[in-house]
Amino acid sequence: MHELSITQSVVDEVRARAGERRVHAIRLRVGALTAVVPDAMHFCFDLVSAGTVVEGARLDIDLVPGRAACRACGVSFDLPDPVLLCACGSADVSVLAGRELKIVSMEVG
């Protein structure tokens, strides 16, 4: 479960930025192609934030769908899974979205 180490890194970064201030909410942007399972991340969040200024904070995850552009035919298309293949049959594609894993914001008080 790589969500545990990813979530630990998120909490560590948020704690470093928050200092001693209580964290009330964190918003993440997670790409669908990262293979991060939001439910698993929520579960891990409660574990790794326990006993810290992040404990009890709300974790909001915005899932970004995969999107790619085909270099062969020029079409942009959605990527429902990590298979990088255009409908024209070409695998020469450029991923436009879906690989994000970013802390977008945090609410402290």
UniProtKB/TrEMBL annotation:
Keywords, in A-Z order: Metal-binding, Nickel, Zinc
Gene Ontology molecular function terms on file: nickel cation binding; zinc ion binding
Family matches, as InterPro entries: Hydgase_Ni_incorp_HypA/HybF_CS, HypA/HybF
Gene Ontology BP annotations: protein maturation
Record-listed Ni(2+) binding positions: 2
Binding-site residues for Zn(2+), renumbered to this chain: 70, 73, 86, 88
Signal peptide: none
Keyword Metal-binding in annotation: yes
Keyword Ribosomal protein found: no
Function statement: Involved in the maturation of [NiFe] hydrogenases. Required for nickel insertion into the metal center of the hydrogenase.
PANTHER family: HYDROGENASE MATURATION FACTOR HYPA (PTHR34535:SF3)
Family under the similarity heading: Belongs to the HypA/HybF family.
Name this protein carries in UniProt: Hydrogenase maturation factor HypA
Natural source organism: Asanoa ishikariensis
